[in-house]
Amino acid sequence: MSANKLTAKRKKFADEYLKDLNGTKAAMRAGYSEKTANEQAARLLANASVQEYLQKRQADRAHRTEITQDMVLQRLWAIATADPNELVHLRRLCCRHCFGIDHAYHWRDEAEYAAAVQLERDDALANNREPNLPTNEGGYGYDKLERPHPKCPQCRGEGRADLHMADTRDVSESAKLLYAGVKSTQAGIEIKLQDQQKALELVARHLGMFNDKLKIEGEMVIFKGEEQLLD
Question: Which partner from 11, 86, 98, 201 sits 20 to 30 angstroms from 148, CA to CA?
Fold first, then answer.
C-alpha cells in the first residue's frame, strides 16, 4: 500500500504523530484503543506506507520552514561537543597565606586591615578583655582569583575550592546552545545543561552509525535506527 492509499485511520495516526512524535498518544488520538495503543503505534511505525507518508510530510515541512537536516545536525553536534566548563566549573583559588610576605596573612588593602583592627578593638571592649590585634606582616594586595602557591605552608598548594558560574552572555555560541537555564535549589543556583550524550546519540543515528532493527522493549520502540519513547 503506497502513502496515497493509506486508510483514513492510518493517515490520522501519522498526522497526529507529527505533532509531538509520541506514537502511543498519536494512536489514541487517531481512535485506537488505549489498551492497545502502544502495540498499535509500534505496528504502524513499522508500516512502509506510513513511513513513506511521514517522510513526505516531514520533507514538505522542511521545505516550508527552510529548516534542513544539515541545520539540525549541526546544532546537535554543537551541543554534543560544547565544553561545559565554559558555563560552570570548579576551580582552586589561593588562600590568604599563599602570597603573603613569608606566607603571613595577606590583606586586600589597608582599609580591610584597618577594619579588622577596629572590629577586634570593639569586641575586646565589649567583652572587657585585652584586644588581640592582627598584624599586617603579610602585606597588602591579596587577589582571591590567583591560583594557589604550590609551596604554601597553610593550604599546601591546594588553596580553596570555588564553584564558578560564567556570565552566559559572554560564552561561545556552542556553550549558549548547551545552556538550558537555571533553577533555584536549597543549595543555591543550579545551571541546567542540555543532554550532551543524547545529542551525540542523535547525531550518530542521523549518520546511520547504528543499525537497529525493529524491536519492542517495554515502553521503547526502535525502528530503523530511530527511537520513539511511548507512554
Answer: 86
CA distance 135 to 106: 10
Grid cell at residue 227: 527511537
Q: 174: closest CA among 73, 80, 72, 69? A: 80
pLDDT band at 223 (very low <50, low <70, confident <90, very high): very low
Collapsing DSSP states into helix, strand and coil, what is residue 182? strand
Cell 604550590, residue?
Answer: 150
Do the Cβ atoms of 92 and 170 come closer than 8 Å? no
SS3 152: coil
The pLDDT of residue 231 is: 31
Q: Alpha-carbon distance 226 to 209, whole Å?
A: 11
User: Among candidates 223, 206, 205, 208, which has minimal Cα distance to 43?
Assistant: 223
Q: Which three cell numbers stand for residue 101?
A: 610576605
CA 52 – CA 30 distance, rounded (Å): 18
Query: What does DSSP say about strands 220-223 and 215-217: parallel, antiparallel, or unpaired?
Result: antiparallel
Give CA–CA dist 116/125, Å, rounded: 14
Instruction: Give CATH 1.10.10.1400 domain extents, the chain.
Output: 3-67+195-229
Instruction: List pLDDT tens digits, range 58-112.
Output: 777 767 766 677 888 889 999 999 999 999 999 999 999 999 999 999 999 999 9
- What architecture is domain 3-67+195-229? Orthogonal Bundle (1.10)
Distance, in Å, from the CA atom of 84 to the CA atom of 174, rounded to the nearest integer, reads 10
